[in-house]
TrEMBL record:
Pyridoxal 5'-phosphate (PLP)-binding protein, which is involved in PLP homeostasis. The keyword Lipid metabolism does not apply. This is Pyridoxal phosphate homeostasis protein. Pfam families: Ala_racemase_N. It comes from Pseudofrankia asymbiotica. GO terms for molecular function: pyridoxal phosphate binding. Keywords: Pyridoxal phosphate.
Length: 268
């Protein structure tokens, strides 16, 4: 069992302080309150010990992008926190710890981390991801809605879903996501699907262009979603290198990895 060394604890504490300060400054520059923003620590390639350290420092949301890495890590974290049973056994989101999605079933132990899946999800992995993920932020096609809904409903779970929006210029190699013109249909499908709760939209800034205009496009897509789904207020955007631009354009959830943990470890 790995544990966080004194040096790692100091590193994570310092990095978290710097990220929180960046979020505060960005929020105030945009005329917003820092409390409006949810920090999601992207813990891919980093051990359970680091997750537990950040959790002890007040971080409640964590994200993974590979099911084969995430499942054992989530189980390890919950085991160390004293959780009974398997990830998600009590069903869905933690009402005590997630103000974004109230009224859902609580999970033991109280205050346990909430887990987001943020990678490209294949249909054959939906069943496995539904066992541990409280959120799936990368839903981008109808067949994935069907598979994830079936998996969540069969376990009596309620999974929060963001529809991933492609912000790339048509014809370029993209980051994934539904075309903006398809988002209305996708959000309708998610909202109607058993076991899924429509949370909002997510996107990654395109490579090779300034992020803020892209995030402005995402904001306009989100505003269109709100007309039919006013409760779906999440805009998940912004990573370590562009969180300020995302905050300026209305992001509510920030997915931060490198700025918290350091340079990503090689994937085995």
């Amino acid at each position: 069992m790995t544990v966080t060394s004194d040096a790692d604890l100091a590193r994570l504490r310092a990095n978290l302080g710097e990220v929180r300060e960046r979020i505060t400054v960005a929020a105030r520059a945009a005329g917003r309150e820092p409390a409006e923003l949810t920090l999601i620590a992207v813990s891919k390639t980093w051990p359970a010990a680091d997750v537990l350290t950040l959790h002890a420092l007040g971080v409640t949301h964590f994200a993974e992008n590979r099911e084969q890495e995430a499942a054992p890590k989530v189980a390890d974290v919950l085991s160390r926190l004293g959780a009974a049973g398997t990830p998600g056994a009590a069903g869905g989101l933690d009402a005590a710890g997630d103000e974004d999605m109230p009224g859902t079933a609580a999970r033991l132990p109280k205050g346990a981390p909430l887990w987001h899946f943020v990678g490209q999800l294949q249909r054959n992995k939906a069943n496995a991801v539904a066992r541990w993920a409280d959120w799936v932020q990368s839903v981008d096609r109808p067949e994935l809605v069907t598979s994830l809904s079936r998996a969540a409903a069969s376990r009596g779970r309620m999974i929060a879903v963001c529809v991933q929006v492609c912000l790339d210029t048509p014809g370029t190699t993209g980051r994934g996501g539904a075309a903006p013109g398809d988002v209305a249909r996708m959000t309708d499908l998610v909202a109607e699907a058993p076991g899924l709760r429509l949370a909002g939209v997510m996107a990654v800034a395109p490579r090779g262009e300034p992020p803020q205009p892209a995030f402005a496009r995402l904001r306009r897509v989100a505003e269109g979603v709100w007309r039919n789904h006013p409760e779906a207020r999440v805009i998940s955007a912004g990573m370590s290198g562009d969180l300020e631009a995302a905050v300026a354009e209305g992001a509510t959830h920030l997915r931060i990895g490198t700025a918290l943990f350091g340079e990503r470890r090689p994937v085995p």
